[in-house]
Design brief:
The complex is a heterodimer. Chain A has a domain at about 15-220. Helix content of chain A is about 70%, strand content about 5%. Chain A has 11 helices and 4 strands. Chain A has a two-stranded antiparallel ribbon. The longest helix of chain A is centred in the first third of the chain and has 32 residues, at about 5-35. Chain A is globular, with a radius of gyration of 19 Å. Chain B is mostly helical. Chain B has a domain at about 5-250. Chain B has helices at about 5-30, 35-60, 65-80, 85-90, 100, 105-130, 135-155, 155-160, 175-195, 195-205, 205-210, 215-245, 255-265, 270-290, 310-325, 335-354; strands spanning about 295, 300. Classes of the chains: A mainly alpha, B mainly alpha. The interface between A and B is large, with 42 and 45 residues.
Chain lengths: ~300, ~350
């Protein structure tokens, strides 16, 4: 394997990793605050992809409007899911919330199937994101640069919100102890809604970018990325935003590089994340960056 | 307070089981193939629901494994019941790997092997997960369900890849499926009523408190998970020899979702509930196919919508979780004493009314 091929694969891996990272941040924030694996989070990727798709194709909106609309719509859906499905059972055993989460995820997928149909739709890629730059032998897709820089910007914004703002402080406080925090005069439901909205917006941007990278929109497109993003969140240390991004990058790189080195294994591509999850649980259950959770 | 009477209860259980067997004998001789097929399905789903309930409802560890373990069980038993000649004939892409291609077992032996292999898989997953945080069980088992399909598609020399394994002998009849079903229910009930079962419930209610009482939570959770995996593997073997053709695409997450609805509707943590709702939903699922077929109601042409059934099912699941969390049975179990007391009370109230 020569150097330019390796660099090329690293770029692909980082691109994929950023997409996982964007999703993983949403998982990690919700888990941090509520100790809930939000199974419906992966499906938000699908929701935003469809909204952007219909925005561009049917309403012929310019792409920035469509993308922004997708982000806002997905954030609203995220808040609605929390208010409708998770809030009523916040006090009941954790297994009820997990079952509801699976129900919500299945509902979103099958609702999309019933309303829109199962045939994959090809996503229209705006010209700005098309093409690639040639640097020597390297071919860097413009989209990869967009994805990398967008992820970086969003990550900085999220870290800023979590560590520098009042609502971020409230989020961190909630992850310690919900009951005490609400006794301190903080409206915990507002903070939780904000967490869901923030996570959903990241998932929405991830979704739009995802279907420009892999341009097929279908109802079940969010399942596997969602699963892997959760693995990325565990890999980085659950509850830790930076960790989630780094976990995503590692996972993306691992997937692309392993297949690049051993093309025979391409069939097992989806199994890599699962193996990583098992290994991480056995060797370093608190993740690479350390968990950000009290017991 | 209902009075327990072990001798009488055993006798009544024995009598009702004999009635069930008589009914099965009658069904076997008089019912149509379609009805028998549904009866077989019901038995398999009872096995699955009861064992799935053991880990989800009784031990309180949320897992999403049934489709994966069914797949493991189905493939294992299918591989072992085919004769070497059949294997040579049906593995056209790649011949079967050596030791497997020569081994051939009887149907019951293959079921046991299927159960053991599945339980072993469960053990391999339980150790990393339960050592850390039970929460991750859901995601690990969900991932395993996806991986097992990938693996079944790719290790062609063992599973015949996407073609699947065809032409299995239809060994599963009403006696096998219901016999194993009854055996499973008896085993699970015995386990739940033993000290292990009480430890499982303690872990469900409060893990820290259970550990403080000297219960090894890791061991109890692992036990529950492997125990249910064993029976799910056996059910997989039964299923494979009922439908006689298995392929990776058969074992999707949909199966797990159906079972989740069954145990939630029945009442998480109630074996009786799991049985009742397995019967209701397997039966009702057949009836609900109507939703997806075109029908006309009062002159309105209603076109069937594929996927509508799943939308309904997920709404039911969310609805039950939000508004009727105890399901049909809550955490109560069927007891003869309760039934007898209820009958007595009805009699006295009737007598009063007259």
């Amino acid at each position: 394997m020569d150097l330019s091929f390796a660099t090329q694969q690293v770029i692909y891996g980082l691109t994929l990793g950023c997409l996982y990272g964007l999703l993983a941040i949403g998982y990690t924030m919700v888990y941090g605050v509520l100790r809930l694996i939000n199974f419906a989070h992966g499906d938000l990727l699908m929701v935003s992809a469809y909204v952007a798709f219909f925005g561009i194709i049917i309403f012929s909106l310019p792409w920035p409007v469509a993308f922004l609309g997708a982000a806002i719509f997905t954030a609203v859906i995220g808040i609605l899911i929390d208010r409708g499905a998770y809030k009523p059972i916040r006090k009941s055993p954790r297994i009820s919330a997990l079952i509801t989460a699976i129900g919500v995820s299945f509902l979103l997928e099958n609702l999309a199937l019933v309303l829109i149909g199962g045939r994959p739709k090809s996503f229209p890629i705006p010209t700005l994101f098309n093409g690639s730059l040639s640097i020597g032998e390297l071919k860097v897709p413009v989209l990869s640069l967009w994805i990398l820089s967008l992820t970086l910007v969003l990550l900085v914004i999220v870290i800023g919100i979590v560590h520098k703002t009042r609502i971020g402080m409230a989020m961190r406080a909630l992850s310690r102890d919900i009951e005490t925090v609400s006794l301190m005069g903080i409206d915990e439901n507002r903070v939780i809604s904000f967490t869901f909205a923030l996570g959903s917006i990241l998932a929405a941007f991830g979704g739009v970018m995802w279907c420009m990278r892999y341009p097929a929109v279908e109802p079940f497109m969010g399942v596997i990325p969602g699963l892997k993003a959760f693995v990325a969140a565990v890999l980085g240390g659950i509850g830790n935003v930076t960790g989630a991004a780094i976990g995503g990058l590692i996972l993306g790189l691992a997937e692309v590089l392993i297949v690049a080195i051993q093309p025979d294994w391409s069939g097992y591509r989806d199994a890599i994340a699962f193996c990583i999850m098992i290994v991480i649980l056995l060797t370093r259950p608190r993740g690479i960056m350390g968990e950000n959770l009290p017991d | 307070m209902p009075d327990e009477n072990p001798k009488r209860d055993k006798f009544l259980t024995f009598i009702s089981l004999s009635f069930l067997l008589c009914f099965l004998w009658y069904a076997d001789n008089h019912f149509s193939n379609y009805t028998l097929r549904i009866l077989n399905n019901i038995a398999i789903f009872i096995i699955l629901a009861v064992s799935y309930n053991l880990i989800n409802g009784i031990t309180g560890q949320f897992s999403l494994e049934p489709n994966a373990f069914l797949a493991v069980g189905a493939y294992t038993s299918a591989i072992f019941t085919l004769s070497p000649e059949e294997k040579l004939r049906s593995f056209i892409i790649e011949p079967m790997a050596w030791p497997l291609s020569e081994i051939s077992l009887s149907f019951p032996a293959s079921l046991v092997v299927a159960g053991v292999v599945t339980a072993f898989m469960a053990l391999l997953m339980a150790i990393p997960v339960f050592r850390v945080r039970g929460d991750y069980l859901a995601i690990v088992t969900l991932g395993f369900g996806e991986v097992i399909q990938v693996v079944a598609n790719n290790i062609v020399s063992v599973t015949n890849g996407p073609l699947g394994i065809k032409g299995l002998a239809p060994h599963t009849n009403i006696w096998w499926s219901w016999g194993i079903c009854i055996f499973t229910v008896l085993c699970v009930v015995r386990l739940v009523n033993s000290s292990y079962g009480r430890a499982m419930k303690a872990v469900r209610e409060d893990e820290t408190a259970a550990m403080a009482m000297g219960i090894n939570a890791f061991r109890i959770k692992t036990l529950a998970f492997t125990f249910s995996a064993f029976f799910e593997g056996v059910a997989g073997g039964l299923l494979a020899h009922l439908i006689t053709t298995i392929s990776p695409s058969l074992f999707t997450f949909l199966l797990t979702f159906n079972l989740l609805i069954i145990i939630v509707v029945g009442g998480l943590g109630s074996t009786t509930g799991a049985i009742i709702s397995a019967v209701l939903i397997t039966w009702g699922g057949e009836a609900l196919r109507l939703v997806e077929e075109p029908i006309s109601v009062l002159g309105f042409e209603y076109e069937g919508i594929p996927g509508m059934r799943m939308v309904l099912f997920s709404l039911i699941l969310i609805f039950v979780m939000l508004f009727a969390r105890s399901g049909l049975m809550g955490r109560n179990e069927f007891r003869w004493a309760i039934l007898i007391n209820w009958l007595k009370r009805r009699k006295t109230s009737e007598a009063k009314n007259q």
